[in-house]
Amino acid sequence: MSQPGTSTGTPSPNPPSSPWSAAERPDTDATAPLWFGDRVGAPAPDSAPTPTTWSAPVPPSDPPAATPSLPRRPRRTWPGLVAVSLLSAGLASGGTYAAVRAADGPGATPTAPSAATQNVSPATTSAAQDIRQINPNAPDWTATAATVTPSVVAITVATQGGGSQGSGVIIDGSGHILTNNHVVDGAQEGGLQVTLADGRIHDARIAGTDPSTDLAVVTITDPPSDLKAIALGDSAALRVGDPVMAVGNPLGLAGTVTTGIISALNRPVTTGDNQGQGEPVYTNAVQTSAAINPGNSGGALVDADGKLIGINSSIASTGSNSGNIGIGFAIPVNEAKVIADQLIATGAAEHAFLGVNLGDGEGQDGTATRAGARIAAVTPNTPAATAGLRAGDIVVAIKGITVESRDSLIAHIRAERVGAQVTLTVLRGGARQDIEVTLAARPAG
Fold first, then answer.
1. What is residue 135's predicted lDDT score, i.e. its pLDDT?
2. What is the secondary structure of 153-209 as a DSSP string?
3. Is it the case that residue 43 has pLDDT exceeding 80?
4. Could you say which DSSP state residue 57 is in?
5. CB neighbourhood size of 436 (10 A)
6. Which of 25-34, 94-103, 292-301 has the least mean pLDDT?
7. Among the options 176, 182, 202, 412, which is catalytic?
8. What 3-state DSSP class applies to 18?
9. What is the structure's pLDDT at 278?
10. Which of 114-118, 128-132, 293-297, 391-395 has the lowest mean pLDDT?
11. Whole-number Å distance between alpha carbons of 66 and 249
12. Looking at residue 406, what is its pLDDT?
């Protein structure tokens, strides 16, 4: 289900160690996307940019050209998948983007005013700082920015064809940084550098990558003792309308913050490179109105208290506008931290498996018709077969959360742990039926 007609996955439930605190095809009906998958053809920069001091970004000599729009696929639009554009680090620094964002240079580091309280653990400077907004309906964003910015880094990647940039989030004091797989994909040996918020540049290496979820962890080679890990939130507790802030390195402008709200939850999104190679990424994403642009990939989406709630990864884009249009997507932190635990421990992530071939479909739900994920076939000796799922069943919910398409169900399965028991609500013979399924590990290959 990881490809059309195959099963999807999600990570192992018991990684050996954890730095965290407790806590196939894109649908192009909605937009004609531009895929930010190509690297900049210019030579790689000698060093990562200083994130806090500059005048205006210098555009590259050869700005990247937009790729053609993907062909439209006939399909209903309202329950369908939003087609989006990957935020490639390769487009992070310059071109026409820099021309319209030249005035967005960072200002002085703000101090926390009285509208929010801050508490820092006295034990170590690498401990996460805690903010409590006095009025959650009117956040003091200066306090949030001051707390979160030191935990977000700029990532510079040297590739065979040149260089690119992206963002990352410090998740512990050991030098582990969570980012997107597409930010570091193709990095040459010794071609990875991390620039901290105060301008210090460190060499880094890839600890592990997971293309299925577009997540990766890089490790600073010789991490300083004063790294500040970000505080972790709970993406399951989010509500539509909650205020959020995006922090990252858009267009090479390190330390940039933008604000908005959570526009939607469990938004099924798929992304992939513009050559159609590799496994598509399916995510039930956090949708936000906070401005996200190329280079924000791998950066932090935080709540008003400065807690990480998602990893910024993609944007929706029309054929005539390849920049931010107010529709951005982030991988929920609850999914991201489970994958990161495994990448740190073993360098790879394990994914869950249902064992069905899927398509889009509709079924009779009482007197109404409901869209969902239609089971085209059930593979023998799989969790789906053991649970009694049948070809022709229309899955309309998982764990009580609405499923309106094949892509939505794939994303939900990938977000589950191996061994998790989930309740699928199916339409069969015009009636609803709940079926318990225990997910297994996806077979290799």
1. 78
2. EEEEEEETTEEEEEEEEE-STTSEEEE-HHHHTTEEEEEEEEE-TTS-EEEEEEEEE
3. no
4. P
5. 10
6. 94-103
7. 182
8. coil
9. 64
10. 114-118
11. 20
12. 94
Lookup result for tokens 């099963």: 7
Q: What does the alpha-carbon distance between residue 256 and residue 78 come to, in Å, rounded to a whole number?
A: 33
Structure tokens at 420: 């998790």
Summarize pLDDT for 376-395 with one digit per residue, the tens: 999 999 999 999 999 999 99
Answer yes or no: 297 catalytic.
yes
d(Cα 376, Cα 7) in Å, to the nearest integer?
A: 12
* Helix (H), strand (E) counts: the chain: 6, 25
The tokens for 13 are 């439930």
246 contact partners, CB below 8 Å, separation of at least 6: 257, 258, 259, 260, 288, 290, 291, 292, 296, 299, 300, 301, 312, 328
What single string gives the DSSP state of each residue in 256-304?
EEEEEEEEEEEEEEEE--TT--SPPEEEEEEEE-S---TT-TT-EEEET
Options 38, 185, 214, 305, the catalytic residue: 214
Q: Which one of 7, 88, 167, 297 is the catalytic residue?
A: 297
* Residue 214 falls in the annotated catalytic set: yes
Length of the chain measured in residues:
445
**Are the C-beta atoms of 298 and 286 separated by less than 8 Å?**
no
Tokens of 161: 């064809």
The model's confidence at residue 359, banded by pLDDT at 50, 70 and 90, is very high
Scanning the structure block, which residue is given the tokens 């938004």?
A: 267
